[in-house]
Every structure is written in C-alpha cells, then in structure tokens.
Amino acid sequence: MGFFSEDERKVRMRKLSELFPQLELDSLRTLITFLHTSHEVYNAISGKLSGYGLSVGKLKIVMPLFVHACSLTPSELAHYSGVTRSTMTSMIDGLERDGIIKRASLDDRRMTAIHLTEKGREIMNATLPEYAVSISDMMRDFTAEDHELFIGLLQKLTSGLERFKDS
Length: 167
Known about the structure:
Elements: H1 6-19, H2 25-50, H3 56-68, H4 74-81, H5 85-97, E1 101-105, E2 112-116, H6 118-138, H7 144-166
Antiparallel strand pairs: 1-2
C-alpha cells in the first residue's frame, strides 16, 4: 500500500505513536488504507467513465433520470445525487452543454424539469453494461457475507464521520 514498504510504514507509525500517544494506530492504519483504496477506486471508475464523456458526478445525475425514465426537478436530482443545489446547477449546465440532458418547464412554469436526451439514453445504454461488468469484476473476490460485512463497516465509519463533523 502506498509509497512505503511495510517496514518503513511500521517505523513511521511507531514514531507517530511516540509523538501522539492518544492516537490509535489501528484506527490510523485502517483510515489510511481506506482513503488510499477509495482514491484508487474513484480513479479507476473515473477512467472508465471518461471514455463515455461522463464523470462520477455526472453519472450520479444521469443515473436517476435513466432509471426512472422520467423528468426530474433539479431539487430531486440534488437529493438523489447527494449534492447541493448550487453544485447541481453547474452540473446540469455542463450536461446540457454536452447534449446529454435537456431542461423543460413544468406546467406552472416556476419549476424546471430535467430529462435525458436521446444522446443521453444512448450513452447510458452503451456505458452501463460495461460499467456493470467492471464493478462486478472489481468486487468478484467478495462473498455475499463480505458484502454485508463491508456495508456494516462502512455504516460504522459513517457514524464516526458524523461524530467527527459534530466535534
């Protein structure tokens, strides 16, 4: 993992524990491993998606439109993708510029609906089969029990993250 050999990593961790005795080294090692792995996963997924003119952020917006096969409001898309409305606006602008989505006014004209264009549907139909195979291949060493355990551990990390944010 990373730039250092296992021996170098142990020496660095020991030095850290001497400087900061309150630091739990198992927690630090686990977090560093998680951050490194999540960064690598993100980069690998981004590389696959970029071949289709998509990014992880764009996929989070386009996916609900594709799955639900209907128009959604920017607020609904922000909710589904977990981003702020201001971030959503700039993402929508880019996707519209790329011809993947289109804005339309709803009946009362105060609300905007976002829908996939034909180009957007074609991109999703071309991307998702390869994307699904890649994800399955990445996770193929996981058993059903591993998936459940991993999800449980990530939920524990999420709880810890909430405490971290609140402190």
